[in-house]
């Protein structure tokens, strides 16, 4: 969309006019008040939290909901006839319905709670990959995947003789679509790609990929970890077979995530782990498995976290998402423009479709040094390979510094980042 285009410096400056900045700051301040942690002082400075790609912060409503659950309702789910258990079960299953609606899944039978995106990918590997892929089959992954969407497929390849092929990326950080089309040979049974790259910020054309794959009977496994927090996701509109994400990147608690899978596929897959809750009956001779989605949820689940995720979805649903999407885009433009003025700084990932994330290197300065110096000014960014080593290799850099924004970040915070980076370049004499 036009909204996601990287624009010229003049246009960016014009767009982020004083009026726009003033008006949005007022609206964003109201939002920020809901996030107590954003008031933290770090190293005698106001916290500037720009590590949302790793984990987003939780609003008070999520913290309160989790606390209320522990204070008033805590009990195990699904098995109890007593009041507390029924309340906990109701809250837990209400959250599943909230997730279903949030991603527009056709049925809550297709919403499986996992411990996060990594766990969701491992579920698909263990239950779908190991059952339905065999020697001679190929799975395509892209060069911009997080390790969570590489290592399970590497393991599958090692174990089953499946071939793992890589969709290359262009210098800007987009999928090389021409090569991708050529890679779609009849042996390809699955394509595993992210909706948004955590290392580059690129938004991939998932609907188009799913359309192409569906025509060829190829299963699509989408890593949505970096997408759900930035824009609405509709799994039916995308037409994907599997979609994974984590609650902690969506302003919810850690330790909980989701795997959406089409019922047609899930119903044919064996269970993930064996134990309580995933069975209908057990004897030493025969075990019958529970219905979807419980077949994939063995043992006591992360109850409070699931309920917290439901509260995070309620919170997000109460926001003006269209405004915030536009606002985050302006933050991206502004950050791109400001950071481009830092001496020796090179942005890694300049796709025209990006979320509000800027990955960069500074000539002659190791990212870990940048991260430490920024922290002295209370500016939290992530440095390293971002669990995406093939991306680092592609750009021939050992690591990058990543500033990843959320809707509660402000233009002033981008200025603070810029000022702190100028300190780095002065200290290291970069010009
Ligand atoms: N995929 C992407 C694109 C990510 O950014 C992340 C986390 O950084 C993951 C997968 C893994 O998520 P989790 O650690 O919550 O399982």
Q: What does this entry look like structurally?
A:
A hairpin with a 2-residue loop joins strand 1 and strand 2. The model is unreliable at about 1-5 (pLDDT under 50). The strands form five sheets. A seven-stranded mixed β-sheet has the order 4-10-9-8-7-5-6, sandwiched between helices. Strands 13-14-17-16 form a four-stranded antiparallel β-sheet, covered by helices on one side. Strands 1-2 form a two-stranded antiparallel sheet. The protein has helices spanning about 10-15, 20-30, 60-75, 85-105, 115-130, 150-160, 175-185, 205-215, 235-240, 265, 305-315, 320-340, 365-375, 390-395, 410-425; strands at about 40, 45, 50, 110-115, 140, 165, 190-195, 220-225, 240-245, 255-260, 280, 285-290, 345-350, 355-360, 380, 380-385, 400-405. The protein contains 15 helices and 17 strands. Bound molecules: pyridoxal-5'-phosphate (PLP). Pyridoxal-5'-phosphate (PLP) binds near residues 148, 149, 223, 257 and 387.
Strand and helix layout:
Elements: H1 9-15, H2 18-32, E1 41-42, E2 45-46, E3 48-49, H3 60-73, H4 83-103, E4 111-114, H5 117-132, E5 138-142, H6 151-160, E6 163-167, H7 177-183, E7 188-194, H8 206-215, E8 219-223, H9 235-238, E9 242-246, E10 257-261, H10 263-266, E11 279-282, E12 287-289, H11 303-317, H12 321-339, E13 345-348, E14 357-362, H13 367-376, E15 379-380, E16 382-384, H14 389-395, E17 400-404, H15 411-427
Parallel strand pairs: 3-15, 5-6, 5-7, 7-8, 8-9
Antiparallel strand pairs: 1-2, 4-10, 9-10, 11-12, 13-14, 14-17, 16-17
Helix pairs in contact: 1-12, 3-11, 4-11, 5-6, 12-15, 13-15
This protein binds pyridoxal-5'-phosphate (PLP).
